[in-house]
Structures are given as structure tokens and as C-alpha cells.
Specification:
The chain is an alpha/beta fold. Helix content is 50%, strand content 16%. A four-stranded parallel beta sheet has the order 2-1-9-10, sandwiched between helices. Strands 4-5-3-6 form a four-stranded antiparallel beta sheet. It has a two-stranded antiparallel ribbon with strand order 7-8.
């Protein structure tokens, strides 16, 4: 059995996530305490008792999702299943930072601070209302890339997330993305819907945020991960700290190659994937990418118990 641990991205956040883990496992609570201290505020209070709209703000959602993922991992470790159970780690967008913290390449403190900076920088790169993202369902990557190219018409519009064989997300200026939605429908998309996001992630409009992250990442220590990271930008494993640093900067403006990443891991013999943290979005994607890969979500004490029993 070859296993990968994968970590969710933005959109999975819910009020109350990780609370049961923190109450059941002191090591999980310690993660939330460390993130609170790193940020100089009680993010844990917002996560467990706050307002969903406030939690969904990019600068809050990103460190909050990382904290929840690392809390789930610490719960697994407390039950005797740690990183030695994984052959690879990967994460969807911000989840790549969670994966790096999980594998020891980044400290939790540095990861929380980087994600707060990243969230703010991505939000500030494009004024609210000027950018958009849309999910195109039922068309493959090549078709959606052609749709985006046609829709751009002098603006920015690119395929930003290649999530699975039936879901590709486009990102760019609002007008261009709206054009892409209509063009995609004309080409037979099952659905083409604007997403409730506050900025157009993973496209050229994020260049100002990439510059901010280049400076922020230059100031932190990155170690070789305990297990290889399957990087969003490359869709293959990397272990060199300086290469990881470069790819984290590129990731801000480049597409998330999730479908290819899962297929690459399967090609290396991975036959089981655990989604560590909030939600089950990646479980659904993996199921649509390769049904031969066994999947489970680990986000609650019951999930931890079931995962440990399966090893």
C-alpha cells in the first residue's frame, strides 16, 4: 500500500472545523494555539465561534484551513500514524503550504504568517469586482483552455485549476470570465458558473501578489520535506528547498495542475489518498480522476480512528 496525504484549499472552510479534534487531542489544540500566537490574534475563536463571512475572507481562510489540517495530522500522530505512513504529500493551492508544514519543510509559525501575507496580497492584487473565476463542468482542459483564449479578447482569462476530468476553473478579468461562461455553454458544457470568490486566483492578474510572496518566502527557512511534495505547478515530486521556494512564488500566477498531480502519484504506485483536514472536495476530485485509488477524509476524531484502524 502506497499512500499520499493531500491537503484542501480555499472553499472548504466552515465554522467549527477542527474543534472536536482540538478537544479530543492536546496535540491538535497545540496547533491552533501556535497559529494564534504566530498571528497575534485568536484565529481559533473565529474558526470555532465566528462569522462564516469573516472566516471566508482570504486572509483568514488560508491560515485557518492550514491549522485545521495540521491539527488532524497531529491527531493521527497521537494515535501512532505519522508522516512515515505517506509516500507523497500534495495540497490544492494554499493546501500546498499545509503539505509543506506537515512534511516538516516549513514551521507552523512561518506557514501561518506566510498564509496571512498570501491571503492579503492575493486580495489586494485586484480591486474587488474587477476579477472573477468560473467553474466549467463537462469540458476537458484543452477545450476550456481554448474557450479561455477566445474569451480573453485582450483581457486576461486562463485555465486556473485543472481539478478533474470534468471540472476546470477559469480565472481573469470579470468581463472575460463572463464571456468564457457563455462560450463554454455554447461548446456543450454541462454547467458554467461564476464562483463566489473575492479575487481571480492563479492567473497573470496575481503578479503583484507573487512579488509580495517572493519577498516573504525569501525571509523564511525551508527544509527538505520528510516526504516529497507533488507541486501544483509541476505536477510531479520536488524535494529541493530552493526549488520549492521558487515554485511557491510561481504558484500564485500559475494553474493548479491537480488532475495531473493525482495521475502522477497513481503512476508512482500510490493506491490510497487521505485528504487531511476540512471538507471532502479533494476526495471527490480524486474519485473522478482515478477510481482505482482508495480515498478517505480525515477531519474528525471518528475519521482519525477509522484511518488508524485501516493501517
Amino acid at each position: 500500500m502506497s499512500r499520499a496525504f493531500v491537503f484542501p484549499g480555499q472553499g472548504a472552510q466552515t465554522i467549527g472545523m477542527g474543534k472536536a479534534l482540538a478537544e479530543a487531542y492536546p496535540a491538535a489544540m497545540a496547533v491552533f494555539d501556535e497559529v494564534d500566537e504566530a498571528l497575534g490574534e485568536k484565529l481559533s475563536t473565529l474558526i470555532w465561534e465566528g462569522d462564516q463571512d469573516a472566516l471566508t475572507l482570504t486572509e483568514n481562510a488560508q491560515p485557518a484551513l492550514m491549522a485545521t489540517s495540521l491539527a488532524a495530522l497531529r491527531a493521527l500522530e497521537a494515535e501512532g500514524v505519522g508522516m512515515e505512513a505517506a509516500s507523497y504529500v500534495a495540497g490544492h493551492s494554499l493546501g500546498e503550504y499545509s503539505a509543506l508544514a506537515a512534511s516538516g519543510a516549513l514551521s507552523i509559525t512561518d506557514t501561518a504568517r506566510l498564509l496571512r501575507i498570501r491571503g492579503k496580497a492575493m486580495q489586494q492584487a485586484v480591486p474587488v469586482g474587477q476579477g472573477a473565476m468560473a467553474a466549467i463542468l463537462g469540458l476537458d482542459l484543452a477545450t476550456v483552455a481554448a474557450v479561455a483564449n477566445e474569451a480573453a479578447a485582450g483581457d486576461v482569462c486562463t485555465a486556473a485549476n485543472d481539478n478533474d476530468p470534468a471540472q476546470v476553473v477559469v480565472s481573469g478579468t470579470k468581463a472575460a470570465v463572463e464571456r468564457a461562461v457563455e462560450i463554454a455553454k455554447g461548446k456543450g458544457a454541462k454547467r458554467a458558473i461564476l464562483l463566489p470568490v473575492s479575487a481571480p486566483f492563479h492567473c497573470a492578474l496575481m503578479a503583484p501578489a507573487a512579488e509580495v510572496m517572493a519577498d516573504a518566502l525569501a525571509a523564511v527557512d525551508i527544509l527538505a520535506p520528510e516526504v516529497p511534495l507533488v507541486a501544483n505547478v509541476r505536477a510531479e515530486a520536488v524535494t529541493d528547498p530552493e526549488e520549492i521556494r521558487t515554485l511557491l512564488v510561481e504558484q500564485v500566477t500559475h494553474a493548479v495542475r491537480w488532475r495531473e498531480s493525482v495521475l502522477w502519484m497513481a503512476g508512482q504506485g500510490v493506491d490510497e489518498i487521505w485528504e487531511i483536514g476540512a471538507g471532502k472536495a479533494l476526495v471527490g476530485m480524486v474519485r473522478r480522476i482515478d477510481r482505482s485509488v482508495a480515498i478517505r477524509n480525515v477531519g474528525s476524531p471518528a475519521d482519525v480512528a477509522a484511518a488508524v484502524a485501516s493501517v
